[in-house]
Specification:
The chain is mainly α. Helices cover 54% and strands 12% of the residues. It is elongated and about 50 Å long.
Length: 84
Amino acid sequence: MAQYWFKPKRYGYGATPITWQGWVVTLGAVLAMIAASLLLRVEARNGWALAALVAFDVAALGALAVVSYCKTDGEWRWRWGDRQ
């Protein structure tokens, strides 16, 4: 039996963490993006630092989206609450 870390949101699109593993993955992605921002803030005047930061954030969010999509109990679709 597969254990799901996320469940579909009641309103909107996507999923929300429901287990400690899901929260660890979500928090890890957020902390990695914060750490990258703090490390690159010294080089804020350089264009390459901003490009590197944006590229890292896109990669971190993409990885989080893939993991949460694969570990969600149900499909991702737009939801309007209890309406069908």
